[in-house]
Specification:
single chain; about 500 residues; Ubiquitin-like (UB roll); DNA polymerase, domain 1; Uridine Diphospho-n-acetylenolpyruvylglucosamine Reductase, domain 3; five-stranded mixed β-sheet; 19 helices; binds flavin-adenine dinucleotide; binds FE2/S2 (inorganic) cluster
């Protein structure tokens, strides 16, 4: 069965939409169609959080409150969710929601432009916590909400005061709200539009494969944290959009003794839990991946399929020995992830072929992992250089090295010459670290751009290799971290 409309819950009622452009963003629908102008538009590229809204969804029979940037969320993506915006928080008698009241009491708003987004990020967090949050936790929660004038101290104070008790009218009404979501849940394919222009959201892999076979020119969309910007910034006239977020199976995570497999549509926030458990450095990098809003929407598959040379996930998967599985029509194939990235803007993926899942090898007991992300800003910033390394040892001898970089070439890439220099060397010998770092120039000829010069990138990358190996050897000659490795991170929300 195929539906020719999307539907979602809004203010207790089911809304059905069958006549909209595939390119319509949720923010445009809210502000221009529904005329709910409380949600603001500022950057229109997912950075500032002024447009944050909450999509409430049934997850394992409980209600998940998921904050997303409405400016880069496509309207069709909200099928099956309850849409909550800043106008909905206060009670009908005008009583403010606890997060709103706390912001008022603690002077957390001046010009107010960022405030609706901050309220919605905190509203989502309010429903996530069971104990008073720490300041560091709130810093994470608000990493994707930029305030230019109030200053964060009163905002964070308000957040800590308010987010300690899931006891608002939304919680009280949850059984009825969950029932409403259950009533509109189905496994029907969606196709709004016609053969020439459509928004499609298949529910089954077979339909997805057939649709992409028939329309190889269609744009695949997962979280739209990249594709959304093609619409708002590049003004690309995308007419056929195939959303993979409803496809059963692409949302699974599977673990074996030696491997972890992520369906392409698994959101980064979910993947971060399993990937982060492998190593504290990986957890820290995923905590610094965009913002809560970006990790909530963005997916594992989108993050690899976009082949960004400065993406943070690819070097991790390359270092851990990842494979990528793809399907076109009935044909399924799997290849090592390094073979997927061919050149800048060029991947080994045919038109109409989609990513099904990604698998990594879990590091064994004799494999040590390090990963570092170098940015101009600590939070919500794209890498200048990113390195992930996995070193396997037999005693003190390096038997295998996998070292991958982002920001050093037109694609995420392994440093094969560095790896070769390390094979068979003694980890504890500082000469090993320096020899390895000196081979970087054989692997990379980085670019100079706004984020860093070629010389800076080569120097930083070399230092990261030395830092990682020195830490693994357990004898760093100088202190390598501001805080010890195990303490730098806390669970990503
Ligand atoms: C504010 C902001 C901050 C960001 N910060 C970071 C960061 O810190 N680190 C980082 O690495 N990235 C960052 N990004 C980039 C982006 O969020 C990630 O690359 C994200 O993982 C993309 O996933 P998505 O699901 O949103 O992809 P989408 O935008 O949906 O798609 C991206 C690309 O992948 C293709 N695609 C998606 N799914 C499939 C599939 N199953 N099969 C085939 N092709 C597919 C799409 O056609 C498109 O070409 C940031 C983006 C924003 C807006
Ligand atoms: S308007 Fe800035 S994130 Fe959407
Ligand atoms: S109150 Fe002015 S931008 Fe935050």
């Amino acid at each position: 069965m195929t539906r020719d409309f999307i539907r979602f819950v809004r203010r207790g009622r089911v809304v059905e939409l069958r006549d909209f452009s595939a390119r319509t963003t949720l923010l445009d629908w809210l502000r221009l169609d529904e005329r709910s102008t409380g949600t603001k538009e500022a950057c229109a590229e997912g950075d500032c959080g002024a447009c944050t809204v909450v999509l409430a969804r049934r997850r394992d029979d409980t209600m998940a409150y998921e904050p997303v940037n409405a400016c880069i969320t496509l309207l069709g993506q909200i099928d099956g969710a309850e849409l909550i915006t800043v106008e909905d928080l206060a009670a009908p008698d005008g009583t403010l929601h606890p997060v709103q009241a706390a912001l008022v009491e603690r002077h957390g708003s001046q010009c107010g432009f960022c405030t609706p987004g901050i309220v919605m990020s905190l509203f989502a967090h309010y429903h996530r916590v069971s104990a008073p949050p720490t300041r560091a936790e709130i810093d994470d929660v608000l990493a994707g909400n930029l305030c230019r004038c109030t200053g964060y101290r009163p905002i964070v104070d308000a957040a800590i005061a308010a987010c300690n008790d899931r006891n608002d009218r939304f919680t009280a009404d949850e059984p009825a709200r969950l029932a409403r979501l259950e009533a509109i849940a189905d496994d029907e394919d969606i196709l709004v539009g016609d053969d020439g222009a459509f928004f499609a959201a298949p529910a089954r892999e077979d339909t997805l494969a057939a649709l992409l076979d028939a329309h190889p020119d269609a744009t695949i969309v997962a979280g739209a944290t990249d594709v959304g910007l093609w619409i708002t910034k590049k003004l690309m006239p995308l007419s056929k959009i195939v959303h993979v977020g409803r496809v059963v199976g692409l949302d699974m995570i599977e673990e074996s003794e030696t491997t972890l497999t992520f369906g392409a549509a698994v959101p980064l926030a979910r993947a971060a839990e399993d990937l982060g458990a492998l190593d504290p450095d990986i957890a820290e990098i995923l905590r610094r991946f965009g913002s809560v809003q970006v990790r909530t929407a963005g997916t594992v598959g989108g993050s690899i399929a976009n082949a960004s040379p400065i993406g943070d996930l690819a070097p991790i998967l390359l270092a851990l020995g990842g494979t990528i599985a793809m399907r076109k029509g009935m044909a399924v194939r799997t290849l090592p992830i390094e073979e997927f990235f061919i050149d800048y803007g060029k991947q080994d993926r045919a038109a109409g072929e989609y990513v099904r899942h990604l698998t990594i090898q879990k590091p064994g007991e004799t494999t040590l992992v390090r990963a570092f992300k170098i940015t101009k800003r600590m939070d919500e910033d794209i890498s200048t250089v990113m390195m992930a390394m996995a070193i396997t040892l037999d005693g003190d001898v390096i038997t295998s090295a996998r070292i991958a970089f982002g920001g050093m070439a037109g694609i995420p890439k392994r440093a094969t010459q560095v790896e070769a220099a390390l094979a068979g060397a003694r980890l504890a010998d500082p000469a090993t670290w320096r020899t390895a770092a000196s081979r970087l120039g054989d692997d990379f000829t980085p670019l100079t751009d706004q984020r860093g010069s070629a010389a800076y990138r080569l120097t930083v990358a070399g230092n990261l290799i030395v830092k990682g190996l020195a830490e693994m050897a357990g004898t760093p000659t100088t202190r390598t971290r501001v805080k010890p490795r195990a303490e730098v991170f806390h669970a990503a929300p």
